[in-house]
Amino acid sequence: MAAVVSVVVVLLVLGLIHFYLWKRLVRDTTGPGRWRRVGAVAAVVLGLLIPATLASVRSSWYWLSWPGYVWLALMFYLLVVLVVLEVPMLVTRRVLRRRVAAAEPTAAAPEPVLVGAAGPADPPAAAAVDQPDHDPARRLLLARGAAIFAGLTAAGITGYGVRNALGPPRLDRVQIPLAKLPRGMDGLRIATVSDIHLGPFRGRAHTERIVAMINRLDADFVAVVGDLVDGSVAELGEAAAPLRDLRSRYGSFFVTGNHEYYSGVEEWVPEVDRLGLRVLQNVRQEIRTPGGVLDLAGVNDVSAAGTGLAAPADYAAALGDRDPSRPVVLLAHQPIAAVEAAKFGVDLQLSGHTHGGQIVPFNLVVAMQQPVVSGLGEVDGTKVYVTNGAGFWGPPVRVGANPQITLVELRTP
Question: Are residues 93 and 193 in the same domain?
Fold first, then answer.
């Protein structure tokens, strides 16, 4: 019942949004006739395209998802721009109304009425005509100007976002000092990537590009912090295969993200291990270098709890009973894991999940759920670095949060 109510609410909201867009973009800018009818049909079709997209993304009809997801992003920015324009539009309409009223001639004093046998004389013709409170032509021009501005702005932002999402990830470098890091390990380099999201829209070429970028970094080890796939091993095994070519001095490591639990985590864990990445499921790994030792730990994603597919995140198993004099770096898909990790004295947590918000202003919504949205932050004394992810989920659009691979360089204070 709860699921049915949720679906009904979502459909109702989508219906109201499309009605609002039809009103502002079609009804207010056209007169009765063919173009208004065409606009109404288009609004209905586009409204139905979104639930069709959500239903088809994991089926053989996934190709429908491309136009549907692009329209979802375009719809969102149209809505945002038009809502922002509501106040200046209202002010402009009132100014125009007052100017029209001020330009009207002052009504003359009424003349005496002569009463005769035929009854009272007819009133002056001018007094019998109601003057409009504003100029309809100007109102139509204003509505069309707002519609054109909203359309061009939304299309421009969405087009930029598509180009950004489908382009190569940006390489960012960040230096993070750790108080316990031995001087001999100063400059240890961790290539960090998350949210690759292999699936119907991103395949083997996407993986190959990411692997090539990481290999050029000459990293000490590689950390893949979850949400590698959106599909089964049978569907995406070939797309993930280039991961076997990852190169680093001390190995490549992986922790599960929430999307692995939607995609058959019980198959993906051995598959990723077969490709040469050690999967850290609530365990700890020593990274021994000529300059010292560092503990690298990993926990299952917090979404594993209650799925029955894998053990939930177990911080005690991964972090307990360790040498507290060693620095420890924790791989955890969601930044929120730092709330528990901080209780075990974790020096640095590397995470993804947020996509940096992916589409502004959704970063503000993400900030209500996660302690760090993008970049370096701190939770109860534990440093948390969140990479934006190298892929996308849902609309193939990134605005304000470039796809990213990060080279984390650990430094002594």
Answer: no
